[in-house]
Write a structure and sequence with these properties.
This protein has two domains: about 90 residues, no CATH class; about 70 residues, no CATH class. The strands form two sheets. Strands 1-3-2 form a three-stranded antiparallel sheet. A two-stranded antiparallel sheet has the order 4-5. It has about 170 residues and is mostly helical. A hairpin with a 4-residue loop joins strand 4 and strand 5. It has eight helices and five strands. Helix 1 runs antiparallel to helix 7.
Length: about 170
């Protein structure tokens, strides 16, 4: 098996900055006029993406974004640290202003990310949001707003949308 080349964050960010508007426009159009069998087509492309993407060489999601913590996450992770949910929130999280008022990390990069090897120190109990990231295998229309954001932060999302743009251009 061949080794997946590492993500070079600097060049990825440059590419993403250059193409994010076109990609977001494409995703909006695809959301309005989805071709038949879109989720099945995306699933096929997703397999290609993961053969080309090494998340551990990147970790840009953990360095620049924060997951939201649901009630199960809060209980599970607080228990791991032998804290109450209230104490875990006080120590590590902040509540989003307005809107849903989700619980999020106080800081980025994520304090649970080991910057030496890009591994998560709580990987086995990480938040559901992290476990599902970048949400490529979810129903497309339910996550199009997430993909629009993630093309700029996640090389896997960027790659998937790039493949979609080249393969679905005529549909």
């Amino acid at each position: 098996m061949s080794k997946i080349p590492p993500v070079i964050l600097r060049s990825f960010k440059q590419k993403a900055r250059h193409k994010k508007t076109a990609m977001r426009r494409f995703l909006s159009k695809l959301d309005k006029e989805a071709p038949r069998g879109l989720d099945k087509k995306i699933a096929s492309l997703e397999k290609e993406v993961w053969k080309e993407t090494d998340c551990l060489s990147c970790a840009n999601c953990c360095k620049t974004m924060t997951p939201t913590y649901n009630a199960r996450d809060l209980k599970r992770i607080a228990r791991h640290f032998e804290l109450t949910v209230t104490d875990f929130k006080k120590k590590y999280l902040r509540q989003e202003r307005g809107g849903a008022r989700d619980w999020m990390n106080k800081d980025t990069p994520c304090r649970f990310l080991n910057l030496k090897d890009n591994k998560c120190s709580i990987y086995a109990i990480r938040p559901d949001d992290c476990a599902g990231f970048p949400h490529l295998s979810k129903k497309f229309r339910d996550y199009v707003h997430i993909h629009k954001q993630n093309v700029e932060y996640c090389p896997a999302t960027y790659s998937l949308v790039e493949k979609m743009m080249s393969r679905f251009a005529d549909e």
